[in-house]
Design brief:
CATH architecture of the largest domain: Alpha-Beta Barrel
Order of helices and strands: EEEEEHHHHHEHEHEHEHEHEHHEEEH
Distance between the termini: 28 Å
Number of strands: 14
Strand content: 15-25%
Radius of gyration: 20 Å
CATH class of the largest domain: Alpha Beta
CATH superfamily of the largest domain: Enolase-like C-terminal domain
Helix content: 25-40%
Bound molecules: (2R,3R,4R)-N,2,3,4,5-pentakis(oxidanyl)pentanamide, magnesium ion
CATH topology of the largest domain: TIM Barrel
Length: about 375
């Protein structure tokens, strides 16, 4: 099988309730710049990353896919995933301007697409190709009920609904209001509404500084918070390690890290307890598997970020021993041939061949901005 063509796309799809916010931004749409990789066997591989639907930055990603990496792929066998990742990752152009940011996300989309092709060529769902079992249970936690721009009454209703009516065993809420005391009031209200059994996580998206994180993070113990996500600036290893020593609530981070070296630095510094790589940011499935083995070697849990909208990462979670929980956000369930499904708070095992990333022709026609 040989790669014959790269067909880029940029989807912008609506998010819940007309707009969502965390401490860094408010968005009305989720962006999915990506690529369909065509082959001479008639199989197509789909890969994409996740953004805040800014067309300028999305076009940078698709330009890197087509013009930085594209010429290196035509004529190659997509099943040679290790060979192709090394060829692109270590290409002089990528070393000089890449290894993070736009080019790393472009590489992620390509690597996901070639793994999609590899699994389709093997006529297996990716979790099976990787040696997983369909009987493995992956717990879903819901982030789509905890947005920072919901008032406290809506926040409480949405979180209670996900636990009581939808059967999720865990919800995550955003913090990062101008006054952390308001965050504490919201945390207390949600904990009271969902009861003591349900898991509750909080996510600051990097907004807090160390003093606030210590002072207010110590008070999370009263509410049994499962993890404090991205408390501080995303790349700040030392202060996250200091915070981890000062508060009881575990630290979760990784959604904005780009490579295995960054994960190793946080893990070896004792700065993270729940590790959250995102397959659409770190260069794809090939490095995801390496990072997952690193995480497992340190006996830490791996709970991926939702950037691929769970489609590929549910396969990876089923296959890898470090995973037992995955973030859930429902924005893109109508746009995939086999959308991620949750029943009673657990992901349903996908069964179609491939990595789960095949978009419908209708979605490509309706939402493509390219
Ligand atoms: C959502 N999940 C997150 C995204 C969310 C961010 O648009 O920006 O809030 O991905 O932190 O853990
Ligand atoms: Mg987060």
């Amino acid at each position: 099988m040989r790669i014959t063509e790269l067909q880029p796309f940029i989807l912008h799809v609506p998010v819940t309730g007309g707009g969502i916010a965390d401490s860094t931004h408010k968005v009305t749409h989720w962006g999915m710049p990506g690529v369909i990789i065509h082959t001479d066997a008639g199989l197509k591989g789909y890969g994409y990353c996740g953004t805040h639907a800014h067309l300028g930055s999305d076009r940078l990603i698709t330009d890197a896919i087509v013009n930085l990496f594209g010429p290196l792929l035509i004529g190659e066998d997509p099943r040679q995933t290790q060979h192709l990742f090394n060829k692109l990752d270590r290409h002089p152009n990528n070393i000089w301007i890449g290894r993070a940011g736009v080019t790393q996300m472009a590489l992620s989309a390509i690597d996901i697409a070639v793994w999609d092709l590899k699994a389709k060529a093997a006529e297996q769902p990716l979790w099976q190709l990787l040696g997983g079992s369909p009987d493995k249970t992956i717990i879903a936690y819901n982030t789509d009920c905890g947005w920072l721009n919901r008032d406290i009454d809506q926040l409480v209703d949405d979180c209670r609904h996900m636990i009581e009516m939808e059967g999720f065993p865990a919800v995550k809420m955003k913090i990062g209001k101008p006054d952390p005391n308001e965050d504490l009031k919201r945390i207390e209200a949600v904990r009271r509404a969902i009861g003591d059994e349900a898991k509750l996580m909080v996510d600051a998206n990097g907004k807090w500084h160390l003093a606030d994180a210590i002072q207010f993070g110590r008070r999370f113990s009263a509410f049994d918070i499962t993890w404090f996500e991205e408390p501080l600036w995303h790349d700040d290893v030392n202060n996250h390690a200091r915070l981890a020593d000062k508060i009881d609530t575990p630290i979760a981070l990784g959604e904005l890290l780009y490579n295995i070296d960054a994960f190793r630095h946080f893990i070896e510094a004792g700065a993270v307890h729940y590790v959250q790589p995102d397959v659409m940011r770190i260069g794809g499935i090939t490095p995801w598997l390496q990072i997952a083995d690193l995480v497992a070697s340190h006996r830490l849990p791996l709970v991926p970020h939702h950037g691929d909208m769970m489609q590929a990462q549910i396969h990876l979670c089923i296959a890898h021993r470090a995973c037992w929980m995955l973030e859930f956000i429902p924005w893109t369930l109508d746009y995939f041939v086999e959308p991620a499904r949750v029943e009673a708070g657990r992901f349903v095992t996908p069964h179609l061949p491939g990595a789960g990333t095949t978009l419908t022709d209708q979605a490509l026609a309706a939402y493509n901005q390219l």
